[in-house]
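Supplementary Note 3. Input sequence used for the single-chain structure prediction.
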Amino acid sequence: MSQEVLFALGLTLFAGLATGIGSLMAFFTSRTNTKFLSLALGFSAGVMIYVSMIEIFVKAKDALVGALGQVSGNWATVGGFFGGILLIALIDRFIPKKDNPHEVRTVEEMNDSGNAVKDPALLKMGTFAALAIAIHNFPEGIATFTSALQDPSLGIAIAAAIAIHNIPEGIAVSVPVYYATGSKKKAFKLSFLSGLSEPIGALVAYLILMPYLNDVMFGVIFAAVAGIMVFISLDELLPAAKKYDEAHTSIYGLVAGMAVMALSLLLFI
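The predicted structure, written as discrete structure tokens, is reproduced below.
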């Protein structure tokens, strides 16, 4: 493997394992810092929306227009963008709400001794919760890998944004698994392993997509990545951030995320 591929895989591994950080935060804190959670989710959404619309979509359009021509290239870009939205929307649609890792839960829920009771009957629910985040993280792994491969600075920004939003996902997955087993160790293990689907997505991209990664393939993937990230931001991150909002904290986080992303892109031009 080249250094560029190893770097892209390393970034994806970092982003995926942030779910484990979320689990640890759930186990070693007694209360959820909702103000910080709201700010962090808003910040992550700001980074994702800005980089998707200002950088990733434009790169996809340039690649596809260059390869297919003005008219076909523009249609392909828009098709890829909404195709990415459709993909992640279908994933969300077919995962039951109670098993969806983007349904934010708090540490207080898990520390409620009335709920943290070992119950084998709930093990299936806990396992599906871990599987749900694995399914969500797989396309995110492809997104991080392909982005880092084409533009390392862009890959770093995307990996950081995904890692931030994976931390509360780690908490969200740990809670139902903990309900199911009564074991914090098992909850951490399943949450940690579910995050590994992100680097697995990167490996699939490397083994299957790399041989075909021409301008058209790159453009379609990038357009789809932009759609996926915008959908995640609007459907999951911002509603979750607003749920715990205090004095427009989530919006301040959103604007800060956009500003940081804009500044990083300017500095690395």
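Residues 113-117 have pLDDT under 50 and may be disordered. The CA atoms of residues 16 and 196 lie 6 Å apart.
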